[in-house]
Design goal:
alpha/beta; eight-stranded mixed sheet; 10 strands; about 45% helix
């Protein structure tokens, strides 16, 4: 049984889309299971529905307005570099409402339901072994994996949304008395979970370069410094996930193919630049093609 697994990574998900397009269209790979975290959770339902054109259009047109109902960021430019600083007005609104997050991502919740239809949900449930998204149960201090087989259309769309909620910048969700947030806070790339669910071959797309030894540009203000700190912590979680995934694959004799980004794509994956995302999609396709040809050659 073949599984496609996609990590978290915000706007870098465009690169994963390009890799997946090559594997599915050019190589004709047919996956039984799809697992994702955060931006990976946004991609996998469309990939499972085999509508690559649609997911390209959706993903390369993502911007702050399609995600945030209350945007905590102001995106600024300095030379060729974009960075974020705090939107004081919106953050003050949140404080006045006694909210615990700087922003709200209800716009993303609406757009997930617009993009992934009930018809596509029904198609995926009947034609694929499983589609699984990763969430963090903060109340129970554990990672949970939500299968399309276990939830209604509305419920599963909510789990996709929750998997992407990068707190404290996006919404904190409550389900059955438990508080949930971005799956990447506990598992950035669920390779091991795919193996535990019966995968015998796993293609894992990691939205980070294999060699993480580079000098990070830290934030120039407290807000962007916080984002840099979160990025550092998630990098450590990702390293652990990959190591555990490799051990699980070796132990169970599972074929594991890992596709990293060849370079550091961006310092801030919460900035959604359409031109860059279109470029990353193409780079992902070309990178996967070169990697597969090198291995087969």
């Amino acid at each position: 049984m073949k599984a496609l697994v996609i990590s978290g990574g915000g706007s870098k998900g465009a690169f994963a889309g390009g890799v997946a397009q090559y594997l599915i269209e050019a190589k004709g790979k047919k996956y039984d299971m799809f697992l994702g975290t955060s931006t990976g959770s946004l991609l996998i339902p469309h990939l499972a529905a085999n509508d690559l054109g649609k997911v390209y259009d959706i993903f390369t047109n993502v911007n702050q307005k399609t995600i945030f109902s209350i945007n905590p960021f102001v995106v600024r430019s300095k030379g060729d570099r974009e960075y974020v600083s705090i939107n004081y007005f919106n953050s003050l609104i949140q404080f006045a409402k006694r909210k615990r997050t700087f922003g709200e991502s209800k716009a993303l919740r609406r757009n997930i339901k617009k993009g992934f239809t009930k018809e596509e949900y029904d198609k995926v449930r009947t034609t694929k072994e499983d589609v699984v998204v990763t969430v963090s149960n903060l109340s129970k201090n554990r990672v949970e994996y939500k299968s399309i087989k276990d939830y209604s259309y509305e419920e599963f769309c909510d789990w996709i949304w929750i998997s992407c909620n990068y707190i404290p910048f996006m919404s904190l969700a409550t389900v059955n008395g438990h508080e949930y947030a971005d799956g990447g806070l506990g598992c950035v790339i669920p390779i091991r979970e795919a193996i535990l669910r019966g995968a015998t071959e796993v293609d894992a797309i990691v939205l980070e370069s294999e060699n993480m030894e580079y000098n990070k540009v830290l934030g120039k203000n407290p807000f962007s410094l916080m984002i840099s700190l979160f990025g550092h912590l998630l990098d450590q979680v990702e390293k652990s996930d990959i190591s555990i995934g490799k051990l699980a694959a070796k132990h169970r004799n599972v074929k594991l193919n890992i596709y990293y980004t060849p370079t550091k794509l961006t310092e801030n994956s919460l900035i959604f630049n359409r031109e860059l995302m279109m470029q990353w999609w193409e780079e992902g396709y070309n990178y996967a093609e070169a990697k597969v040809e090198k291995v087969s050659g």
